[in-house]
Write a structure and sequence with these properties.
The complex is a heterodimer of chains A (338) and B (331).
Chain A (H helix, E strand, L loop, with lengths): L1 E16 L4 E17 L3 E5 L6 H9 L6 E8 L2 E4 L5 H8 L2 E4 L13 H11 L5 H14 L16 H13 L5 E5 L7 H18 L2 E6 L2 H7 L2 E6 L2 E7 H6 L4 H9 L39 H5 L5 E2 L8 E2 L17
Parallel strand pairs in A: 3-8, 3-9, 6-7, 7-8
Antiparallel strand pairs in A: 1-2, 1-4, 4-5, 9-10, 10-12, 11-12
Helix pairs in contact in A: 3-4, 3-5, 4-5, 5-6
Chain B lengths: L2 E14 L2 E14 L3 E5 L6 H9 L6 E12 L2 E4 L8 H6 L4 E4 L3 H4 L6 H12 L4 H14 L5 H4 L9 H13 L5 E5 L7 H18 L2 E6 L2 H7 L2 E6 L2 E7 H6 L4 H9 L49 E4 L2 E3 L10
Parallel strand pairs in B: 3-8, 3-9, 6-7, 7-8
Antiparallel strand pairs in B: 1-2, 1-4, 4-5, 9-10, 10-12, 11-12
Helix pairs in contact in B: 4-5, 4-7, 5-7, 7-8
The chains are: A alpha/beta (338), B alpha/beta (331).
């Protein structure tokens, strides 16, 4: 059952020039992105900085208004097009979608106690107040592995990992359907990272959460996600199940990402062979396939035409890819063992 | 093997209003000629402070309480801890014999001078050559770090360059005087994976060509595995384990190293739950007694680990570990 359908989502930021702010062009941060997320699954959105991952997430949550496209949320048999609602109409649906931010040092108000931070969503939605509110906050803190006594403290008294737990408690306070996790472990130390990932997986089971998991770290993706969408310069270039993406990548960019991750095993040293070039300017993307200037397999057609995003997998296990040579290329993946 | 730098029982304390933080507390290691030594640990473990002590660029609130940092230079030895941090001698060493690459390339260059001007300045500080010659050398170095259009980039300001390009410039600047030792403090942490791979590859190529030694500071076990010849693992101001890189990854001995290696998600091995290290890094003002890892350790021995600090034991040639599991309790 689908929870969320994103269709042709676009977010263009105007580039202005001069005193009168004349629009001279657009940064196509998100350019015609479509995907869906099933109830209870985790979809990872992977890509390098500036590829539009976060803008996609923010457009879905209507933290920013998308330029075009549909974001359809299926709620108990009711379909709501989040992208097309007015600010007022949107209000009752906000509680179903929450976000966990990257940096727990900047996403908590330093002047509010934990009780107020975690309790605020419950209070403003009129769900609980007074003693009941306190009980609910205590429950939430327990669910994320913090002692309820901590609720009278301020954020500065907590470490990065604990702060991220507070952020998570706030996000699940309203029992949302969809939680957008925007690089939730990137700012944390390695020994804490595993704790937070485990917590997110536990909470998903307990509260039947659906995650849109944004990250640049492929080793994290593999553990937490059911399906993976790879983004490059505002477009999704490959989308399939985690096993397919890792073991059988069909887009050269996905192959590059997989090979670029430094593996914690000195026996795999020869793997680290970099590709040339950097991510191009999204205000002025290359012609044809956006990846062609860096692609080791590029031919002349890649400079001229943007490849179609098509399904090369089966009906049950679709494998979408946007590459002219996806059928013929033999790309190296990473074997997954359990 | 010939040693370039020897650090003996280094202790660096910070006097802050809340108390004294023992950021580096009894650290000893050597760096050999032409090797890459990886220094790994989590934030706050004292990796960067160790590097800053070598160049004597510690913040004002820090003081070197004990220890020596012996640098081998032109056949002579020199204890860097005895130098005046603002004196002639250390300034002569900085940038020439020992240079450094920082984590944030955007924050490490001055925004008001061109990249070239800053690189020329570094060369002119140490060598008696003309500005034109220095500039020529800078362009050459920029080509060496594979910057396209080096002649143009030399006159660009930092804001005109991407993070990856600036990091290349910083490497070019650090290598332009052919240093004996390069300190690289999280050189790729701020970069994207594909750019990180490029920079790591470049550092390795240059290191082979110049035969410099590198102290590579990182929190990323993957980077260490790919780059280092030897590895030192740090936890709360102590080095808990040192070994050759293949040995360390195949046969980690210290419970902290073992837990760290188990807790990182690895590509290709899918688990439903990741193993974790229990608890969190303790408060730096209030360090645990005895072994500093004892309150998070799975092999904690009551009455020993929380009372005495374990000595460093050489288990195999070149593999040292600071843990009572491998002896040392009788002393």
């Amino acid at each position: 059952m689908k929870l969320l359908e994103v269709k042709g989502l676009k977010k263009y930021f105007p580039l202005t020039k001069g005193f009168f702010k004349k629009v001279v062009g657009y940064v196509r941060a998100v350019d015609d992105v479509s995907f869906d997320i099933k109830q209870g699954e985790t979809l990872a959105l992977v890509g390098e900085s500036g590829c539009g991952k976060t803008t996609t997430a923010k457009s879905i949550l209507r933290a920013i208004d998308p330029t075009d496209g549909d974001v359809i949320l299926h709620l108990d048999g009711k379909d709501v097009n989040i992208a097309k609602l007015s600010r007022d109409e949107l209000k009752p649906y906000r509680r179903y979608m929450q976000m966990i931010f990257q940096n727990p040092y900047t996403s908590l108000n330093p002047r509010m106690k934990v009780k107020e931070i975690v309790g605020e969503p419950l209070l403003v939605n009129g769900i609980a107040k007074g003693k009941e509110l306190e009980d609910r906050v205590a429950e939430l803190l327990k669910a994320v592995g913090l002692r309820p006594e901590y609720m009278i403290r301020y954020p500065h008294a907590f470490s990065g990992g604990q702060r991220q737990r507070i952020v998570i408690a706030r996000a699940i306070a309203l029992r949302p359907k969809l939680v957008v996790c925007d690089e939730p472990t990137s700012a944390l130390d390695v020994s804490i990272r595993a704790q937070i990932l485990n917590l997110l997986m536990d909470l998903q089971e307990e509260f039947a959460l659906t995650y849109l998991f944004i990250t640049h770290d492929l080793s994290v993706v593999e553990h937490i996600s059911d399906r993976v969408a790879v983004m490059y310069l505002g477009k999704i270039v490959e989308l399939s199940s985690t096993e397919e993406i890792f073991e059988n990548p069909k887009h050269p960019y996905t192959e590059t990402l997989l090979r670029s991750v430094p593996k914690p095993d000195p026996d795999l040293r020869e793997e680290l062979v970099p590709i040339e070039g950097e991510v191009p300017n999204p205000a002025n993307p290359p012609s044809g396939c956006y990846f062609h200037p860096r692609c080791p397999y590029a031919k002349s057609i890649c400079k001229e035409e943007y490849p179609e995003f098509r399904n090369l997998g089966t009906e049950d296990n679709p494998h979408y890819v946007a590459c002219h040579f996806a059928e013929s290329l033999k790309l190296r993946g990473v074997k997954i063992t359990l | 093997m010939e040693k370039v730098l020897e650090i003996r029982d280094l202790r660096v304390y910070f006097d802050l209003t809340e108390g004294t933080v023992k950021a580096v507390d009894g650290v000893s290691f050597d760096i050999r000629r032409g090797e890459i030594l990886g220094l790994v640990g989590e934030s706050g473990c004292g990796k960067s402070v160790t590097a800053q002590s070598i160049l004597r660029i510690l913040p004002k609130s820090a003081r070197i309480v004990n220890g020596e940092i012996v640098f081998h230079r032109n056949g002579k030895t020199l204890d860097l801890t005895r130098l005046d941090p603002e004196g002639e001698e250390i300034r002569d060493i900085r940038g020439k014999d020992i240079s450094m690459i920082f984590q944030e390339p955007m924050a490490s260059f001055s925004p008001v001078y061109t990249v070239g001007a800053q690189m020329v300045e570094a060369i002119l500080l140490h060598e008696n050559i003309s500005k034109e010659e220095a500039r020529k050398r800078v362009v050459e170095m920029l080509k060496k770090v594979k910057i396209p259009n080096a002649e143009k980039v030399v006159d660009m300001y930092p804001f005109e360059l991407s993070g990856g390009m600036l990091q290349r410039c910083m490497i070019a600047m650090a290598m332009s005087l052919n240093p004996t030792l390069l300190l690289a403090d999280e050189p790729t942490t701020a970069l994207d994976v594909t750019i990180q791979a490029q920079i790591l590859y470049l550092m390795k190529e240059l290191q082979k060509e110049y035969h410099s030694s590198i102290l590579l500071i990182t929190h990323d076990m993957g980077v260490v595995a790919q780059m280092a010849d030897r590895v030192a693992v740090m936890y709360l101001g102590n080095i808990v384990e040192t070994a050759e890189v293949f040995e360390l990854f195949k046969n980690p001995l210290h419970p902290y190293t073992q837990a760290l290696l188990r807790s990182i998600p690895k590509i290709g091995i899918r688990k439903t739950r990741l193993e974790t290290i229990k608890g969190m890094v303790p408060d730096p003002y209030n360090l645990p007694t005895g072994c500093r890892f004892h309150n998070r350790c799975e092999k904690f021995m009551k009455g020993l680990c929380d009372v005495k600090e374990p000595p460093e034991v050489e288990v195999k040639p070149g593999h040292k570990v600071k843990c009572f599991l491998y002896g040392g309790e009788k002393e």
